[in-house]
Amino acid sequence: MNTVEDRIRAVFADAGCSGWLHARRCDDSTGEISVDGHSRVVSASIYKLPLFVAFCRGVDAGRIDPAARLTVLPSDCTPGPTGIAVLRDPVTMSRRDLATSMMTVSDNAAADVLLGEIGLGAVEELLADVGLTETRVVGGTADQYRTLVRDTDTHSTAEAFAALADNDEAWSVSAYDPSYTSATTPQEMTRLLRAIWTGAVLSPEQTDFVRSVMRKQPWSHRIASAFPHRGVSVAGKTGTIGVIRNEVAVVEFPGEYPVAVAVFTRAARADPVLPVVDAAIAEVARIAVTELRRPLPDA
Question: pLDDT by residue (tens digit) across 129-140?
Answer without folding.
Answer: 999 999 999 999
